[in-house]
Amino acid sequence: MPEKGFAEAFGVTEEARAKINLALHVTGQRADGYHLLDMLVTFADCGDRLGFLPAKADAFTLSGRFGETLAGDSGTNLVLRARDLLREAVGVLAFPVHIHLEKNLPVASGIGGGSADAAATLRGLMRLWGMSLPAEALAALALRLGADVPMCVESRPLIARGIGEQIEAVPDLPAFAMVLANPLKGVSTPEVFRRLATKNNPSLNLASGLTGSAGWLAMIGAARNDLEPPARQLVPEIAVISAMLQGRGALLTRMSGSGATCFGIFASMVEAQEAATALHGTRPDWYFQATETISGGM
């Protein structure tokens, strides 16, 4: 299905924004094995896109650069799991639906693609089915789909703690011009955590009264992603791609999530777009995307 006319082809559409971990501190581990995290998260003005239509029977279709990666994944696809869980919750209101996923983000890349898709499915189907869930019930259902899904339902700048379910809005976070970069090489999240040398690291301290991009950049720069060193051991291209972003003038670079996507923050969208174009020319087989994150006061 072509990208043009997407909104016209489907009665309800939802954007599944890329989730960017500006900082990720691993602060402990629960008895059940889940790691405790402190994360400063924002969302980019790019990502996957979903469309929803009433249908005679449930259907699911794919398009986009990375759509083929998910072909045949009906058993584990988070979009279908989100549909089925929400249908259980709402019962007779949930008539059959055709869901189309335009997969523009790399799969399993540390920017919440599958989680954002699941969250967008919940939002889109509630609109299509003409219903809503109380905020607490929606958050609990989202958490059943994955630790990142509740924050992707919010899709706004936030701090997430615990395993990701303790969410606090960050209304003062500004927008940033950014390039997302991924060498399109898989990295195992369980293996990254297994290689993490220290699991009781200092928590994220968000300074109060931050104003303007410069102050926020300094604060983000003083934070870290505790998963980046072990991820670099597994995928050396992460270090390469970070150096490429720095070489094109990024003010700050860091890996997002468990990788392998890195981001570079630039002074302007013009600089970000120029950097993305140049980097794509150097490595056309990798993923580079200029984008802007949303502000906390959107």
UniProtKB/TrEMBL annotation:
Pfam families, A to Z: GHMP_kinases_C, GHMP_kinases_N
InterPro entries: GHMP_kinase_C_dom (IPR013750), GHMP_kinase_C_sf (IPR036554), GHMP_kinase_N_dom (IPR006204), IspE (IPR004424), Ribosomal_Su5_D2-typ_SF (IPR020568), Ribsml_uS5_D2-typ_fold_subgr (IPR014721)
Keywords associated with the record: ATP-binding, Isoprene biosynthesis, Kinase, Nucleotide-binding, Transferase
Residue ranges constituting the GHMP kinase C-terminal domain according to the UniProt record: 223-279
Reactions listed under catalytic activity: 4-CDP-2-C-methyl-D-erythritol + ATP = 4-CDP-2-C-methyl-D-erythritol 2-phosphate + ADP + H(+)
Gene3D superfamilies the record matches: 3.30.230.10, GHMP kinase, C-terminal domain
Top-rank lineage group of the source organism: Bacteria
Its EC number(s): 2.7.1.148
Domain GHMP kinase N-terminal: 77-153
Binding site for ATP: P106, V107, A108, S109, G110, I111, G112, G113, G114, S115, A116
MF GO annotations: kinase activity
Pathway: Isoprenoid biosynthesis; isopentenyl diphosphate biosynthesis via DXP pathway; isopentenyl diphosphate from 1-deoxy-D-xylulose 5-phosphate: step 3/6
Residues annotated as catalytic: K19, D148
Coiled coil: none
Family classification: Belongs to the GHMP kinase family. IspE subfamily.
Protein function: Catalyzes the phosphorylation of the position 2 hydroxy group of 4-diphosphocytidyl-2C-methyl-D-erythritol.
Protein name: 4-diphosphocytidyl-2-C-methyl-D-erythritol kinase
Source species of the chain: Rhizobium hidalgonense
